[in-house]
Amino acid sequence: MGNRKALRDIKNMVVAPLYQCAVTKRRLTEKNNVVDKNPKFVARRPITRSFAATLTSKSQATQQESKENYEQIGNKRKHSPTVALVVSSNSLDTSTAIEVDEHLPTNELPLPMAEEMEVIESSDAKEVEMEDIVMETIPDIDICDREDPLAVVDYVEDLYSFYRKTEVTSCVSPDYMSNQFDINEKMRAVLIDWLIEVHHKFELMDETLFLTVNIIDRFLARQTVGRKKLQLVGVTAMLLACKYEEVSVPVVEDLILLSKRTYTRAEVLEMEKLIINTLQFNLSVRTPYVFMRRFLKAAQSDKKLELLSFFIVELSLVEYKMLKFRPSLLAAAAIYTAQCTLKGFKQWTKTCELHTNYSEDQLLECSMLMVDFHLKAGTGKLTGVYRKYSTFKFGCAAKSEPALFLLEAGHMLDPK
């Protein structure tokens, strides 16, 4: 029995565990059957899928050799007392009982060979290296604002997570015009296009424009309005948005002059009461602008990309059909479309996908509509946005060539 050698492979490594486990050697005493655990080898890192595949191929190659060895010593083991050695795997939650000879020297129990150890170290090193490379490709977009208290870097991710959860409250039904008896979506488009020009003339903040459009849609979704009062709704909505966003608010008389004295001061104030009560004083809503700033930061934008993105998203404000998209999706699609327009090819990084929570495929439908709006922006009667962004102040963003290849890509995905 002293010349007997341990088997090289007793199939305890045929199915390699996916996670870290230890091969434990146990010494058994015949008197009291006390198990003395003496760890001989502990894997230093998790066994990867690639190593599992390597071990599987090795074990298959040695199965024939193992079978022959078992047959040779089969007769010797018949008269020898045996005990069970249980090799457990935490990762698979299973255990394998293997019969071994009581008199078998413990130092001859099957252990990983030196070449297998090299495979573990090399394969695991490659896996760690690849993981590190992937993590390095996603930069920290807030690192430059760590010292700025207004950037609230410690809370910004929580804030935008809350914005995404609550943005649905600022949305309206995409077919609310069906409840209106005297106005339609074309009249809404004319009103929004005119308000964009008024907003530009007064040099108001971007937030004011987006809030104005949101107030109009939410009010019209709940209240029927005649066509003669539609402009009054728009003017009053801008007055409310200015009171919420601006430091210097235009006076009522200025808005009356813009409407060519169609309405009186009393009518404006009466409409203001009606709108604010209908909306239950809720002006803290998530508009596309809220997400534009964050997503542009994730895209590491320059001034050119920023202006083109706002040009595209303002074109979408005019279009009634775009109400079916959430504000965050509109913002992400506008930036994606602008990037594709400037680069001339599809451009959507992992950083943008991480911070927007939208993949390129999710943006494609909305982006195709935006490309179509860009293509037709300078034609037709509603050219307020096009003329605004054709000026030097806005970088002549409207004169950029549309990303027509996105339309072709969309038709390839959906032949209909």
UniProtKB/TrEMBL annotation:
<feature type="domain" description="Cyclin-like">
    <location>
        <begin position="193"/>
        <end position="277"/>
    </location>
</feature>
<dbReference type="GO" id="GO:0044772">
    <property type="term" value="P:mitotic cell cycle phase transition"/>
</dbReference>
<dbReference type="Pfam" id="PF00134">
    <property type="entry name" value="Cyclin_N"/>
</dbReference>
<dbReference type="InterPro" id="IPR039361">
    <property type="entry name" value="Cyclin"/>
</dbReference>
<feature type="domain" description="Cyclin-like">
    <location>
        <begin position="290"/>
        <end position="372"/>
    </location>
</feature>
<dbReference type="InterPro" id="IPR046965">
    <property type="entry name" value="Cyclin_A/B-like"/>
</dbReference>
<dbReference type="GO" id="GO:0016538">
    <property type="term" value="F:cyclin-dependent protein serine/threonine kinase regulator activity"/>
</dbReference>
<dbReference type="Pfam" id="PF02984">
    <property type="entry name" value="Cyclin_C"/>
</dbReference>
<keyword id="KW-0195">Cyclin</keyword>
<dbReference type="InterPro" id="IPR036915">
    <property type="entry name" value="Cyclin-like_sf"/>
</dbReference>
<comment type="similarity">
    <text>Belongs to the cyclin family. Cyclin AB subfamily.</text>
</comment>
<dbReference type="GO" id="GO:0051301">
    <property type="term" value="P:cell division"/>
</dbReference>
<keyword id="KW-0132">Cell division</keyword>
<feature type="compositionally biased region" description="Polar residues">
    <location>
        <begin position="55"/>
        <end position="64"/>
    </location>
</feature>
<dbReference type="InterPro" id="IPR006671">
    <property type="entry name" value="Cyclin_N"/>
</dbReference>
<dbReference type="InterPro" id="IPR048258">
    <property type="entry name" value="Cyclins_cyclin-box"/>
</dbReference>
<dbReference type="InterPro" id="IPR013763">
    <property type="entry name" value="Cyclin-like_dom"/>
</dbReference>
<feature type="region of interest" description="Disordered">
    <location>
        <begin position="55"/>
        <end position="77"/>
    </location>
</feature>
<feature type="domain" description="Cyclin C-terminal">
    <location>
        <begin position="286"/>
        <end position="403"/>
    </location>
</feature>
<dbReference type="InterPro" id="IPR004367">
    <property type="entry name" value="Cyclin_C-dom"/>
</dbReference>
<keyword id="KW-0131">Cell cycle</keyword>
<dbReference type="GO" id="GO:0010332">
    <property type="term" value="P:response to gamma radiation"/>
</dbReference>
<protein>
    <submittedName>
        <fullName>G2/mitotic-specific cyclin-2-like isoform X2</fullName>
    </submittedName>
</protein>
